[in-house]
Amino acid sequence: MTMSNYRWCAAVAAALLLAGCGGGAQSNSGNGKAVALTKEQVRETLPDDEAMTGWKESARPTAVEMDKLYRSQACPIKDHAGCENSRFYGASTFRHDDAAATVTFLIIAYDSEQAAREAYDVLWDGYYGKRAGQRAKTFGIGRIGDERDARFGSSGFHGEPGAVTQTRVGTTLLWTLAGSADKDKGGIDEDGVRDLATVLAKRARQSQNGDAPSAALDG
To answer: pLDDT digit string (tens) for 128-146?
Structure first.
């Protein structure tokens, strides 16, 4: 993943921030079934300051209704494939000054589990799976979510590390895009990326169970 990709992620989060985050009626119960999230639930699913010990918020958790503009950002492939039956799009961004690291969390919320399942391979194979560079390797992130993939590479201008994970939790697709601006500081590693992806997946599961998301790093 190149630094230009990190800037793209930050730009996505900034665009969502400018759009504002309206509320949505809380609904759905903790019956263990995959449910379609409201806009407010999408926003609450995104990690916030309380969930990100050691990190500083760069762009606050924000969710918007999916429209033509956001489909072009969330699904930047032909005909915006993968965004069919999507309802909301969300993002938040953090930085870790000590490690010169950044992470952006992204969510697409669909109207059904089937829609999210059908979009999974389309978006991973068509776009997100390539975000860590051509020489990136796959790595395991544990059995989080219903489906999961992850790649780790070193494709910055000076070999800076970068990683991308994609996870499906019920009716949502989730991404963790992490990288470092300084390879000498260590930045990120597989364990750190795994922890970040796990937090996001756990929060998505809590939302779909009708609970307030509370999963956090070191929590």
So the answer is: 999 888 789 999 999 999 9
Using CA atoms, how far apart are residues 169 and 91, in angstroms rounded to an integer? 16
What span, in angstroms and rounded, lies between the C-alpha atoms of 44 and 215? 11
- Read off the tokens for 203: 């929060």
How many Å from the N-terminal Cα to the C-terminal Cα in the chain? 28
Q: Which two tokens stand for residue 118?
A: 């059908």
User: Nearest CA to 54 among 106, 100, 98?
Assistant: 98
The predicted model scores a pTM of 0.86
Look up tokens 């039956």; give the residue. 85
Burial zone of 78 (CB within 10 Å; 0-12 exposed, 13-18 middle, 19+ buried): exposed
Q: Which distant-in-sequence residues (6+ apart) come within 8 Å of 3 by Cβ?
A: 156, 157, 160, 179, 181
